[in-house]
Amino acid sequence: MTELPLPTQGKMATPRPISPRQRLYRRLRPYIYLFPAVACFVIWIYEPLLQAFWLSFQQWNLLPTSPKTWVGLDNYSNIFELPKFWQALRNTFWYLVGLLPLAVLLPLAIAIFTQDLPPRSRNLYRALIFVPMIIPPVVAAAVWRWLLDPNSGIINLGFQWLGFEPIGFLSDPAIALWTITFITGWKLIGFATLILSAANASIDGSLIEASRLDGATRWEIIRDIRLPLLSPTILLLVLMVALLGAQWSFAYIHVLTEGGPLGSTTNIYYLLWQFGFGSLSVGWSSASAVILFVGFGLLAMALFALKARFTFYDD
Hints:
- By secondary structure, the protein is mostly helical.
- It has twelve helices and two strands; from the N terminus they run αββααααααααααα.
């Protein structure tokens, strides 16, 4: 009788040899996955940024048939000597100062004080607050123009009914900037409330219950537990408002005031647009964009340093 050989127990299977083509594919595979994202960054961000930096040293009127003239640093020196630039810079600062209470403090209060409401009431309040966010900016601006009209606007009619004079919300240089700031902040309240409510809901409930068992008051719970654990989200919103708040007001400025009256509502973003598409001065517009990029880049670095230093995490 013939005995069949038994397979050797514990013998490791010999790995199949990899061809040079497969080895090359394995090495390139991570870069292939990254390529679409990197290509988007290069095409949509870094290439236009380099183009803007290059155009900031030239004089050009945006016409393809018009030659570009190298002017060196003249665009930068002319912009720094322009009173309109410094006025726009001051206006940008006041836009950001005015937006912080509307886009951070008020949503923070709403998120905290609606957290303990019954679920149905809480969702209703937050849905009503979020409604302005889904209105297109141009439509919102048109509605506010009608509401604030000095002759037939419902707000001024209400003032007149109370015995006050009509207010030029969009025509008075002392008020127009704050009107645009309020409208921009009104649009942002829903978004900021949603972000802070989500962060507030993610706080570990056992911390709140333990503090209540220890006799902590509602204010002590907010001060010692909720606010420290919300600090990363709060500073993130401050960062977004500081970097993007003035940009978000562009549509309202363009529709409601076009930068007036007397430049009182022109911020640095709108001035950049006026240079580029109002006077067709691409060099000035590009130089303004480079100044804006450097200034807000430094501001972002400072805010990220503050965020890393003062935020608190429970892990």
